[in-house]
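Regression test case RT-17, inverse folding.

Input:
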């Protein structure tokens, strides 16, 4: 549960993930890894045909959809108490990215894909995770597709002023 527990006494929890090998070619196919975001993983899987049909077919990739901790059924605590202050301390981007890096390593071993690229995908918050995880774990994720991912857009961030998008869109419309 806590990837950064210096004592190594952290408990474990069950993280749900999906694997689709419909188009997978074990000789050449990469891992196509979906960075799940805030919701049940089946909802994302059912609505990501670009990845599950188009990209998987073209690359002969093995599809992996990871469910974000604290969503779907991937709760480290009973859902009725998971979001209490003493339990939601593990609901962080850093912990989630470490979950995904560990899952990618497991998939590589389980499917004998140690020499295959792993490309991470995501949209919105999942796209932010895809971009960040590619930067944080380049040895695990060799590429990323971050769709609709405002990963530099934060309140008071000098890199992306808060109303800049609205200003640009208004000027374009005008």
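Golden output:
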């Amino acid at each position: 549960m806590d990837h950064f527990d210096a004592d190594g006494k952290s408990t474990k929890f069950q993280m749900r993930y999906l694997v689709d090998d419909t188009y997978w070619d074990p000789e050449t196919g990469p891992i196509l890894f979906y960075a799940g975001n805030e919701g049940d993983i089946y909802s994302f899987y059912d609505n990501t045909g670009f990845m599950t049909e188009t990209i998987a077919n073209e690359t002969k990739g093995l599809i992996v959809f990871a469910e974000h901790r604290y969503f779907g059924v991937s709760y480290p605590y009973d859902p009725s108490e998971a979001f209490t202050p003493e339990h939601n301390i593990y609901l962080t981007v850093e912990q989630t990215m470490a979950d995904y890096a560990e899952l990618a390593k497991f998939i590589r071993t389980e499917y004998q894909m140690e020499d295959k690229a792993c490309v991470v995908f995501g949209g919105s918050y999942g796209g932010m995770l895809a971009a960040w995880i590619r930067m944080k774990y380049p040895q695990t994720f060799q590429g990323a597709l971050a769709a609709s991912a405002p990963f530099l857009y934060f309140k008071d961030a000098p890199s992306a002023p808060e109303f800049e998008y609205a200003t640009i869109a208004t000027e374009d419309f005008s």
